Each structure stands twice: as structure tokens, then as C-alpha cells.
UniProtKB/TrEMBL annotation:
Signal sequence coordinates: 1-21
Assigned keywords, A-Z: Hydrolase, Signal
GO biological process, one term: proteolysis
GO cellular component, one term: membrane
Listed name of the protein: Alpha/beta hydrolase
GO molecular function terms listed in the Swiss-Prot or TrEMBL record: peptidase activity
Native source organism of the sequence: Sphingobacterium corticibacter
Sequence ranges assigned to domain AB hydrolase-1 in this UniProt record: 36-142
Family, per entry: Belongs to the peptidase S33 family.
Length: 312
């Protein structure tokens, strides 16, 4: 029995599994724990950290960061049938990760929906977070949804895409606070390649290909029930965090943003608003880059993140 317990403990350490009575969180650390710590918070609901982990985590660790990735409870590799997928649960998960890796102060990288999670966590624990880094992060959801639908309407009219126009009309008649509205809005955005890099480079193509054929690509687990649970159990399903970000900035946490210039889910006004809020010196845009800067332009993303976290 003692040997069995020892082997189980070694398994959990080697594979970064944080076990509790209620759940198992997938997590893994890359790099030296004496380097500045950054926690990556993935998109969703329904997402995971595999793309970031498979393309950027080890690379960033080689540049002198202590990088921690994890999948939220009920998403990706952190399967849990009891997960509620609420923001409160997501913040509890971050606390579990910080305790597991003995982190006192750290930076958060919030990507896409993960930006909302990172923002709410920083609001609750401003003394723990040194840098809140928004990477293609949502911050005014309805503004993004309106921009997507308006932009897609223009493109559909230009292309005489009747099917797309019909779908946009259907979406506009849905309740904006439903999983179906969110899902179909992002589907039409994908139809018009809003999440795709405009001109893939040899490096970005190689990174994507390597990811698809790696263990991370094979572990790209998507829980289709996650968005439904989130919209069922969470009241804050369509939020604007600009005031929260202002409050965080006043608390002394350093805010910064890294956004692709061709990320189609944000309007020019939204980007200008966020740049004003964060500060021009802390807001960075990358050309020929869409919603995934760490893959589309890994070199520029790495250089920018190092500048933010380490002052390089």
C-alpha cells in the first residue's frame, strides 16, 4: 500500500496533476522556478491550453520565464463531471495552481475568454498579480459580438453570400445572453476567417504543423457541454470589464495588451479604447497577426512578453 501511494504521488508530480477530492486539474510548469512566473489562462468555455503549451510554453521558458499552463476544471484535460464552469470556480482553480507551484507573485497571460478570467482574478487578488497581460483578450463582449455581425454583414453583401446573410439575421434575433448566440456569432466569424492569420509565414506554418502532429494536438480535448454549463450556471455571461481594468490599474497592477492587428473580433474603436485604458507604452499590436499571436508571430510575441515581464 505504501509503495502504491508513493508511485501515485510521483505520477502526480511528474505530470503536473493537482488532485483534490472534487477534481483533477491538468497543469504543467516549464523552466526554472527562480525565473519570473507567468500563468497562461486559455480561452473558452470549451477551450484548453494545448496550442499555447505546444507552441510557446517551452520556448518562453528557454528565454527565462517560469511558465505554468493548466486547463480549467471541466475543460480540456481537466475533465470533471461535477464542474459548474462558473467564474468563481475558475478563480478557485487559479488559487489551486498558485498554491501547487508555491507562487507568491506572478504575471497572468489571459487569452481570449481567458482574459475575462484573468481580469476577475486580478480584481480579487491585486497584491498577487504583478502584470495582467491581455492577449487577444475579451473585455467588452457585446461590443465584439456587434462588431463581428456588422463586419460579416458587409462581407456577406460584398460576396453575395445569401446563406451567411440569412444566418446573421437569425443570430440577431437570438437572446444575446445565450450560448447559442455566442456559438453562432463565432461560427460566422470563422466563416469569414476572422481567427486566421492573413499571410501565414514559414515559421507559423511549421509551428501549426508540429502542433497538429504532437501529443498536444492529439490532446486537444473539447468539452461541448462546457459553454452550456457556463451559460446555465453563471450570471455574468456577457460582460464589459473596462471599469474593472481601470480599478485594477489604480491598484498598482501593471496592465498591458498584445493584440494582432488583423484580429477580426475587435473593432478599431475597441482597440483604441483599450490602448487608452492600458496606456500607449504598454499596448502592443503585431502586424500579419490574428487571434493567436503566440503562433502567428511567435518571435514578436516572445519579444513583447519578455519586455513586459522582465523589462528587456
Amino acid at each position: 500500500m505504501a509503495l502504491h501511494s508513493l508511485l501515485l504521488s510521483l505520477f502526480c508530480v511528474c505530470f503536473g496533476l493537482s488532485k483534490t477530492a472534487a477534481q483533477t486539474l491538468y497543469s504543467k510548469a516549464y523552466g526554472n522556478r527562480t525565473d519570473p512566473a507567468v500563468i497562461y489562462i486559455h480561452g473558452g468555455p470549451r477551450g484548453n491550453s494545448t496550442l499555447f503549451e505546444g507552441t510557446a510554453a517551452e520556448h518562453l521558458a528557454e528565454q527565462g520565464l517560469y511558465v505554468i499552463v493548466y486547463d480549467r476544471r471541466g475543460e480540456g484535460r481537466s475533465g470533471d463531471p461535477k464542474a459548474t464552469l462558473t467564474f468563481q470556480e475558475a478563480l478557485q482553480d487559479i488559487n489551486k495552481i498558485t498554491k501547487q507551484y508555491h507562487l507568491k507573485r506572478f504575471s497572468l497571460i489571459g487569452h481570449s475568454f481567458g482574459g475575462l478570467v484573468a481580469t476577475l482574478y486580478t480584481e480579487a487578488h491585486p497584491k498577487k498579480v504583478e502584470n495582467l497581460v491581455s492577449v487577444g483578450a475579451l473585455f467588452a463582449q457585446q461590443e465584439s459580438y456587434d462588431h463581428i455581425l456588422d463586419s460579416c454583414t458587409v462581407l456577406a453583401n460584398k460576396a453575395n453570400d445569401t446563406a451567411a446573410l440569412n444566418k446573421i439575421g437569425e443570430i440577431k434575433n437570438l437572446d444575446t445572453n445565450t450560448a447559442d448566440y455566442r456559438k453562432k456569432t463565432y461560427e460566422i466569424a470563422s466563416h469569414f476567417r476572422f481567427f486566421s492569420m492573413p499571410n501565414p509565414t514559414p515559421e507559423s506554418i511549421a509551428l501549426r504543423d508540429a502542433y497538429e502532429h504532437s501529443v498536444f494536438g492529439k490532446d486537444n480535448i473539447r468539452n461541448d457541454e462546457a459553454p452550456l454549463l457556463f451559460y446555465k450556471n453563471e450570471t455574468r455571461v456577457n460582460i464589459d470589464t473596462k471599469r474593472t481594468l481601470q480599478k485594477i490599474k489604480q491598484s498598482g497592477v501593471r496592465l498591458s495588451g498584445i493584440y494582432g492587428l488583423q484580429d477580426g473580433i475587435f473593432s478599431k474603436k475597441q482597440i483604441a479604447d483599450l490602448q487608452t485604458l492600458v496606456g500607449q507604452d504598454a499596448f502592443f499590436t503585431i502586424d500579419n497577426c490574428s487571434h493567436y499571436p503566440f503562433v502567428d508571430q511567435r518571435g514578436a510575441f516572445t519579444e513583447t512578453l519578455l519586455h513586459i515581464v522582465k523589462g528587456n
